[in-house]
């Protein structure tokens, strides 16, 4: 039977839109005590207000995942406001229309690696010691099918997503003896704001069959709701028609 997430403390990084926002909503509805973070404070406030209207109180904290100190402060603020952190979901990510090798430049490369990969390490680093001390916790990283098979998402995106899968599995092997579970989720096409960062937007026909953010959020929840003796190390979720 799936476990309840009631009163578990969940930190979601990248919660202002898309998959992270949908995950924050489902976790709050399941009774988790949620800290939602991203850079856009007004989007976080909108999320807080919309969940409050449903009767769910969530905390928000604007922070830039590319900044290790900001991730440490975010983890501290979460512990202060909600208590020890049980769950981290890293749903932060970006891409660029200038994704091809012809157009990619060092600052764009740096931006993608910092956002998609460095931030995941900073966030995990900020929460893991507390999990270790308490002998439990669950880290979930949103990577991509682009981290498993070559596609048109660009060298920087694919390198960052391969790296994120490596980071997740390495943490899992090291930390399982400390009771910490680690899951990396690789979605296929999801209809989110990330589509705006493509050089060519998906067609209406493609978007009509793409995953919705809440589909990926449901998969994240299914992983989180397994009993502590079980873990899904890596999960792929793609649109059934693609
Ligand atoms: N959409 C897809 O087809 C697809 C497929 C596979 C994997 N993914 C992955 O899924 C994850 C979520 O993306 P999404 O599709 O849900 O796109 P999205 O709606 O654009 O969400 C991206 C989230 O990342 C946050 N973010 C970006 N840069 C940040 C930074 N420096 N610091 C903190 N937060 C930052 C954004 O918030 P702020 O801008 O407010 O900071 C936003 O909340 C990404 O890792 C993406 O690569 C997406």
Secondary structure layout plus pairing:
Elements: E1 9-13, H1 18-29, E2 33-38, H2 41-53, E3 59-62, H3 68-82, E4 87-90, H4 106-134, E5 137-142, H5 155-175, E6 180-187, H6 204-209, H7 213-224, E7 234-237
Parallel strand pairs: 1-2, 1-4, 2-3, 4-5, 5-6, 6-7
Helix pairs in contact: 1-7, 3-4, 4-5
This protein binds NADP nicotinamide-adenine-dinucleotide phosphate.
Identify the notable features of this structure and list them briefly.
242 residues; alpha/beta; Rossmann fold; 7 strands; 45% helix; globular; binds NADP nicotinamide-adenine-dinucleotide phosphate
Give a short synopsis of this structure.
With 242 residues, the protein is α/β, with parallel strands linked by helices.
What does this structure look like?
- The protein has helices spanning 18-29, 41-53, 68-82, 106-134, 155-175, 204-209, 213-224, and strands at 9-13, 33-38, 59-62, 87-90, 137-142, 180-187, 234-237.
- The mean pLDDT is 97.
- A seven-stranded parallel beta sheet has the order 3-2-1-4-5-6-7, sandwiched between helices.
- Helix 1 (18-29) links the parallel strand 1 (9-13) and strand 2.
- Helix content is 45%, strand content 15%.
- With 242 residues, the chain is of the alpha/beta class.
- It has a single domain (9-236), classed as 3-Layer(aba) Sandwich (Rossmann fold), CATH 3.40.50.720.
